[in-house]
Structure formats: structure tokens, C-alpha cells
Amino acid sequence: MQKTTSDRSQLPTMGEGRAALLARVHAALGRDKTQAPSEPAPVVDESIARLASSDADLPALFTERAQSVGMKVHRVSLEQVVPRLRELLGQLEARRIGVAAGSVGERLELELDAALQADGVKQIDWQAREGVSAQYDLDVGITDVHAAIAETGTLVCCSGSRSSRGLSLVPPVHIALVRVSDILPDMIDYWARLKGMPNTELPSSQAFITGPSKTADIEGELVTGVHGPGAVHILLIDG
Amino acid sequence: MSDTLFPKLPYKLKQRADEATVNIQLQQFVNHATYSKDVARKQAMGGAFGENTDAVRDLAGQIKQHTLDHLDHYLEQFIDNATATGVQVHFARDGEQANQIAVAIAEANKCRLCVKSKSMVTEETHLLPALEAVGCETVETDLGEFILQLDNDAPSHIVTPMIHKDRTAVARAFQRELGAEYTEDAEALAQIARKHLREKYRKADLGISGGNFLVAETGSVVLCTNEGNGRFCTTAPRIHVAFVGIEKLVPRLEHLGVMLKVLARSSTGQPLTCYTHTITGPKREHEHDGPEEVHVVLVDNGRTDVLHEDTREMLRCIRCGACLNSCPVYRKIGGHSYGAVYSGPIGAILTPMLKGLENYTDLPHASSLCGACYEACPVKINIPKYLIQLRRDMVQNHLSGTGDRVTMRLWGESLQHEWSYRIGGWMQKTFARMQAKFGGTLETDDPYASRGWLTWAPGPVKGWTQERDMPTPTAKSFRHWWRKEHGR
Fold first, then answer.
1. Which of B12, B155, B293, B457 minimizes the number of CB atoms within 10 Å of its CB?
2. Which residues form the 4Fe-4S ferredoxin-type domain (chain B) (predicted)?
3. Cβ(A209)–Cβ(A157) under 8 Å?
4. Is the peptide bond before B10 cis (omega within 30 degrees of 0)?
5. Is the confidence metric ipTM above 0.90 for this complex?
């Protein structure tokens, strides 16, 4: 059973206790109680740390970087999204899929529902069951993104009432719907967007996805799809 | 396995290093892997930051140093903010206490199967046997760690734990332990692991991870993995427990904009790890998947001893492994020679601090002080400086061997006067040339040329001549030649 917010303040703490740990930290720092820093934390100097700015051709940069880490990018107009998805799902021989792409628009969802039904592709109701158990036998997970980062070719997929942690991870293929307007130049811009948001409102999970699942543990040879999706397709939607 | 990283103390590295230096296969694997990663790091850092490469390392180092200088403040912030999101924060003085906490969570929830992602802290605390002892089967899910677990072997690199093994070892382990058909195809091997571990994720009721960063401002845990196992272990099971060292803090989310940029590039040459995952509390009420309970175990295990001012900088380490990849000594002797969880240059300074200098007197000497580690470090830890500092501490605390002390004393004395210097020099020269006649080659008539090699010598010189030949000194000294040429 999930704990409600009210009993969270009395969550049990194990081990030596907060005070004991802090006492040793204080001793090492040469003081007897916690002091607020006398100087502010270092500022993220953008002239050093920023690697892409809004002057750049963001869709082009994002496409180039996403491809360089092994994701496939398909540039489409909004009208082409459903036909292109059908085509892609056909090529992948997908029989069972999960879709969580609410932010791209209700019309698109309805259109996609009808098309999938016509093609005999079964859409599971991933919201009906808690956890990821229903997602293991899916062929494809389709998700929207909360942002995309041009500089690294990264998809940001967050948890939420209309999005799932599992759909971008559990099925062997992940298809991400990215609108050009989702693209931010640099990771710095993503953090700036969250600034001031109370932490209890942050998504419990923010996944920065930069490529398909990879390993080089066996003699340094790059293999994809070791735990997560072996293929990531991005439909980059104009407008 | 436990012997490899937890040898009998005090630990002497000579035997393992000797074995490693004649193991041609090990040399090839380690050399190839570290060399290619070192090149990838330089290209990735230089390619992204160009002339700012040094400046971004400064900035990353400053962020970590500032956090450590005010660790009390940021720890308290983290604890409060994490608790507000529903995370249960626990405190572990040492490894044993950390394991007890994990065991208590597993027992309270009657957990039978635990999936675990890669974490150096859990290697430190030796968590796996503790969970298994209470009947909670625990499976390593990082491919490298999984294979090491099947082979009852130990990791030898911070980032690529099975750097000392090749594909045939993987194939044999899968054939023996999983009943898989023998194949040396890396892709097929990865698929065998995928299939096997998927079943584990499906059934697991406990997930254990480490943490690459903790964010004080939000109480978030940040995990960086490439395979996706880190996300699986923190998504599929009902309970997630993160073991994290107290030094992993950064003040705010925006600081990740710097730290993440240098971590993956320094580690594997990637712009970001495939999966960089920020966890802020358990699954919210309106969410459909994710763990219902999230626990963070803040592990000290010796870190507050290192936090003292004169060694604090060591705790900046973000475990990228760049210093291992760049180190000529690590490349030669491999990770297991260091006899501890942390190997390579950072291990050579951190291990003596965490486990007692008197227990690891060889480690501060396991370096040529070439400085490649300092150059590679994305948070600019001055590793050579600390190697020298530890050597000095050893002398001051009388931890260096009697032989060393006598030799250094004699050397020091003989350099005090011209006459003793001359006699010393003459003795060394005469002895070495005599020795070369019997146990080496000496083939020149030129009194000022050294054309001979000393291939074997007794006593303190033996260690040198075992590995390489030593050139013989010339018959006549430089001073002799100078007097002859210049008259005085």
C-alpha cells in the first residue's frame, strides 16, 4: 500500500541517527554546529559550461547528435505522424504496444487509436495496472517527451499521471514523439526551466535518454539492447 | 572473491603485481581498454569544451569543493528535502551498519529477490552476502558485475568492472551457470543476459542502487547507467534502496549541468550516459509505475576521516575512472593488485585514508608520479600531491620499512660531505662494474662510455634488475673527465 503524505513525516530512520553523523561532519569541518555557507555556491558560468545556444539550428543539431548516439530520427509534419507511426509499427511487426503521448494532442490520440485498430495492433491500457508488469510483453512503447536537449541528443522522459516510467524502458523498441518546440539547446536550459519548482512537485522520475541501451563490458565491443530498448526511433514533429 | 578486495591486512601488493605483469592476456585486455578510453576522454572533453577544458574542470572541482567545505549544511538540506518527498533517509556509520539497514528493510518487507545495479559503495560494504544470508537472493544486473557474480570474481575497475576478462570467460560462465549454448558473439551473449535478467526484474521485490549525485536543494538521487539496469532496478521492484556516500552531494540541480557534462565524457567519452536518471521521491499518488518506497542510506564508512582539511579534496572524486585509464601503473598491474575496492591512482590515495595507512603502505608508492591522473581528473584532484603527502606521513609515523629508512639515512649522510660523496660514488661504480662482468655484459674500452648492462644484482638493486637491465656506470666519473678537460 502506498503511504499517504501525512504519515511521511514519521517515516522511521534506521542506523546511527542524523545527529551522530553530523557530529562527525562538524568535527571534520572544525565547528560544533551546522553553519550556512559564508559564500554562495559556485555559479554555473555559462561561458564555460554552455555547449549550445538558442542561435543554433536546434532541430538540425538535435538530429545530428541523436543520430550520433545511435537513435533514428524521422522528421515529419503533424499530419504525417499517424501514417509514419503505422508504417514504422508495420516494419517492426509490432503486435502489442503501449502509448503515452497525451501531450501531442487528443486528436492525434484518437486518430492513432482508430488506425491501430484497423491494423490489428493491440494497445494495452498501461494505466489500468500498477507497476510495469503489463509492459514486459510489449513490442513497442510510444511516448511523448517533456523536453529534448539538442547538445547531447537527449530525450527527457518524466513520470506523471499521463506518462509512464516503463514505456521508454521495458519494451524492446521505444518510439518518442518530439515536437520541434520541445527542443532546448543545452541541459542548462532544462534545469533553468525547473528553477523554483517545489521538490514535491518535481516528477518523481526524470529520465535523460541518450541513445539505446548500451554496454561495452565484453571486450569493449559496443552492444545495444542489453536491458533497455535496443532501438530508439524519434518522430521529430514540425510545428 | 572477498579476498581480492578485502585481503588480509596489512596488504602487500608485490605478489599480485608480479603475477599481473607476467600475465600477457591481462596486459592486453587492460591496456587496450584503458588506452581507448583515455583517447575517447581526451577527444570528448576537448571536442566539447575546446580551450575551456581546463576551466570546466576547475568549475566542476569548485562545485564539489564548495559542497564539501559546507557538507554539514548541504547534508541537512538534502535530508530535509528528501524526507519531504517521502524518501526514508538512514544513516550508516560503517559498512556493517549500512548492510544491517538494507537487511532490516528486506526482512520487514519479506523480500525474496533483489535486483541490484552497479554501486561501488555496496562493494565497500560487501552488501551482497549480507542480503543472501537472510534469504534474499540478490542478483547483480550490470552485465559486467553479473558475470563477475557468476564467476565469484571481483571488479577490477571503477567503471568497467570486468576489464580483466575476455569474451571466452563470459561464454564459459553463461554455459556453466545458465545452461546457455557456448557462443563468443558479444551480441548473443548480451541477449542471454537480457533474457535471464528480465525474469529477475519481473519477480524482484527489492531494488538496490548506488547514486552518482545527491542534490541538496531537491533531495534527488541521480543515477548514471548505460545499460538501463539502473532504471530497471529503481522502477520495477516495489522498494528501492540507494546506498550513497555522503560526499556525493551537489547544492542544486543546475550544478548537474556541469557535473553530468564532465562525468560521462571523462568516463567513457560519451556526451551523457545513455540513461541519466533523477529520482525525487517514490512514485507519486497519481503515477502508475515506480517504487512505492524509496530509501536512501547515507554511508560514512571512513569518509568523515578524509573530510579533514588536509585531505578533503580527495572526496571530490566522482568515480569516473579517468585516472585509472590514464595511469601507466594501473595499465601494467590491473585493478586487483591494489587489494581494495578502489584501484588506480585514486585508490592509491583513498584506500590508505579509508582503511589505514599502516595497512596499505605500498599504495602511495604504486605510482611513478607522472601526473597523468591529475591531468585526466575532471574535478582536478591533485593526486600526485597526496601520494607524496602520504609517503611523508609514512616516514613521520615510522611506517616505512627499516631497509628504506637505513638506505635513505645513509644516502642523506653521504651527500653531506664531498669526501663521503666521492667514496660512495666510487663504491657504487666499482661494485656495479664488477657485477656486470659476472652477471651481465660489459664491452667497451672507452672509460667514459657505458656500454654494459647489469642483468642481475643482489640486495636492494635486485628488485630493479628483475624487471629490466640496468646500464653500468662509466669507468671514469664525470668529475674525472671535467678535471682532465678543464684542469680543475
1. B12
2. 305-338
3. yes
4. yes
5. yes
